[in-house]
Amino acid sequence: MKNTMTKISWMIAGLVLACFWPATTHAQAETTPEDYKSSNMAPVAPAPSVKPDFQGNFSLPYQVQCHGHKLAPGQYTLMVKTVGENKMVTIQREGSDIVLQSRPVTPTSVSASGHNAVLVRHGPGPRTRTLEGVYMENLKMVLYLDESGHVNRLDKMFASLKRLPIS
Fold first, then answer.
1. Which of 89, 121, 92, 90 shows the shortest CA–CA distance to 102?
2. pTM surpassing 0.85?
3. How many helices (H) and strands (E) does the chain have?
4. What are phi and psi of 19, to 5 degrees?
5. ∠ at Cα 16 (13, 17), nearest 5°?
6. What is the residue-wise DSSP string for 101-120?
7. Where are the domains of the chain?
8. Is the pLDDT of residue 1 over 60?
């Protein structure tokens, strides 16, 4: 019994010493990447940026909703890019970006008159405004961004559509 207790005491002392003794490691503190060159590796090139199909500026005189985002009054930059088969719309203001996937539609008589414009639907409530789409004259296309605020067709029928020009 005394022999077993002595062994256990020595094991505990050894474990305590091992836990509190500083381990010195040098790992790769003084190595550089050139030390590990490989002939079958190539440098990673940055992904090529997608050139915008359309870019312009517009001004919002009032707050609007767009795909769950509140856009405050002010100046905005709008870019449309084709990524694969999708048209992606980026709305920028003061360093913050909102990237939205759009649904392209052939223009109707209401949306196709005039120059490039942002389409804002007002109504049916007194302060309900939704940025729903973008009309691009050079692409002959309307990109619908958000219809979530107007799922009821009757509400959409009584709402008015306003065009804000894009420069």
1. 89
2. no
3. 2, 11
4. -70, -35
5. 85
6. E-EEE---TTTSSSSSEEEE
7. 2-36, 54-165
8. yes
